[in-house]
Amino acid sequence: MSTHALLKGLERNSALVLLGTAAFALISLACAAQSTAVDGQVFRLINIRDEDNNTRHIQSWLDLAPDGRTLAVAPTQSFPFRLYDLQEGRIARTLNVGNWYAGARSTFSSSGRYLVLQQMFYLDMAPNKVRPVKFQVVEVSDGRTVFASDDLYSATLSPDERSLYTLGPKGLEVVDLISGERDKLRRMPRLGHAVAVSTDGSKVAVAHQPSREELAAMPSVRNDKDALKALEKFGHIVVVYDAATLKPIHTLNEPFDKIFRLVYSPDGRDLWIHAKPHTRKGSAVDKRQSYVSTADASSGAMRRTAFPSLSTYEPDFRISPDGKLFGIVSQGRKFLEIHLYDRDSGRMTERFELGYRFGDATPLKDGEFGADGRLSFTFLPDGRNIWMTFGTRLVEWTYKP
Questions:
Q1: Element (H, E) at 218
Q2: Which of 77, 127, 180, 342 has a Cα at 20 to 30 A from 329?
Q3: Contact criterion met (CB below 8 Å) for 372 and 76
């Protein structure tokens, strides 16, 4: 081949590359264009694929790192797991953490050093029982797995990131993340189904199946024989323990339906209890009904606020950066929704419906897919925007335009 012919070929290929790059940029801009819905809400659709990471995953979970800019995006079906830089608007890194078929609930540790991954299912809320699932703790810097188990009900990291509290068939155990060894002095054989560590690391809350004696000590049900019988069989109580000794401090003075998740609020004010009525009790108006109750994190006294959800799957819930709003996923007549409540009064202030208006933005012919029935979201530090999953793309909702 002559030098002249070679140069002509290079020019032609360079032009094609430039055209392709320009087209990709236009597509990205279109995906990120801001729109206003018919109900006046401001949103935009975001495609986080790039030339190096163009696989069209359905996104299963979001969590924002403590640095306020690194977004963990957990996909379904296959990996890599993506870390998206919000400031630079690009996929900064990927992690190879294995194939979590239906995705993983992903939670950053207090400093962002670790990610705790919890197995999700396409039908992840067995309505009448809490089942053991796979958990994995990953070092974010290199994707190294520092802990893995296939049969835990719940697991959570301590704020100092040294200990992992696990609930499994043997009860509560504490694992040292550095050595991988279980603490022989801090263990409790009593079975539990959800665990949370307080924001200051001093207390551990555990959901247990109650005894008749524990229920009889609760003023709201102790004189109701039918309630006592049902709760002993189908209900849960929450006991708060000293983290250093695992000796009980107090028991929340209300019984609950089956508890699926316990979470201490980031600001240390509240203990959130996500529970769902047993379908055989027939007490729920809708079989999808679940709720998040609120207790004072210090005293254990129950607050008057509770936040309902009709989500078919276990709902994601979080608070805004200023601590004033409580957000939870629910289901409307047809579509998934995010409901925002005033945290103190429990009054709904706003709702965002993932409806038909996004249909044109996810053309099947382009390999894009809408939501699969699950929704995860996170508040951004700006106090104005929420990012949420929506099939193969993400949505930014400006809840404070």
A1: none
A2: 77
A3: yes
